[in-house]
From TrEMBL:
Organism per entry: Synchytrium endobioticum
Name recorded for this polypeptide: Iron-sulfur assembly protein 1
MF annotations from Gene Ontology: 2 iron, 2 sulfur cluster binding
Task of the protein: Involved in the assembly of mitochondrial and cytoplasmic iron-sulfur proteins. Probably involved in the binding of an intermediate of Fe/S cluster assembly.
A GO biological process held by the record: iron-sulfur cluster assembly
Pfam family, one: Fe-S_biosyn
Domain of life: Eukaryota
Cellular component GO terms, alphabetical: mitochondrion
Lineage, top ranks: Eukaryota, Fungi, Fungi incertae sedis, Chytridiomycota, Chytridiomycota incertae sedis
Entry-linked PANTHER family: IRON-SULFUR CLUSTER ASSEMBLY 1 HOMOLOG, MITOCHONDRIAL, IRON-SULFUR CLUSTER ASSEMBLY PROTEIN
Cross-referenced InterPro entries: ATAP, ATAP_core_dom, Fe-S_cluster_asmbl/transfer, FeS_cluster_insertion_CS, HesB-like_dom_sf
Family per similarity comment: Belongs to the HesB/IscA family.
Length: 173
């Protein structure tokens, strides 16, 4: 008899003083409580070979999956400039790091070849890698390149972000 586990989460805290910028920002903290119940789940019915074959036959075939990350035209253009030197082959690897008051920040680094678990994104002839640990946080994001009079940077439009620090340096998914 296996125990059943339920996880309960607390409500978000009101405000938090950002260690990076010194602003009061909303911050959600989740306190987990695990309750172990001695009640076992009902036993699974055994399936016959014919029933399993019928399930496989009626399975819906899915089309190609959605890209984990899309690149804007300006991001593709800038990446082509960065990759222009053929004597120095490199790829841009996107990941996340634990940093800031909201928990995570984006990290960009050059690598010469992808690791075994990296997700390879290719769009308009440009390849970008996503670290396997950051993939869940980045799915559905858009990477843009923005240039103004004072700075130029890659900007991520991430639909998975639930909260951001007041200074914009860190986020929570």
């Amino acid at each position: 008899m296996l125990p059943t586990i339920r996880i309960l989460a607390s409500k978000p805290a009101a405000r938090h003083l950002c260690s990076t910028c010194g602003l009061l920002t909303p911050l959600r903290r989740v306190a987990s409580v695990i309750h172990v119940s001695p009640v076992a789940p009902p036993p699974l019915p055994s399936a016959s070979t014919e029933a399993m074959a019928a399930v496989r036959k009626n399975t819906v075939k899915r089309g190609p999956r959605r890209a984990a990350l899309t690149l804007t035209a300006s991001a593709v253009s800038r990446l082509r400039q960065l990759y222009a030197n053929p004597s120095d082959p490199k790829l841009l690897k996107i990941g996340t790091k634990k940093k800031g008051c909201s928990g995570q920040t984006y990290s960009l680094e050059y690598v010469t070849h992808p690791s075994k678990l990296d997700e390879v994104i290719e769009q308009d002839g440009v390849k970008v890698l996503i670290d396997s640990k950051a993939l869940f946080s980045l799915v559905g994001s858009e990477m843009d390149y923005v240039e103004d009079k004072l700075s130029s940077q890659f900007v991520f439009h991430n639909p998975n972000v639930k909260e951001m620090c007041g200074c914009g340096m860190s986020f929570m998914t």
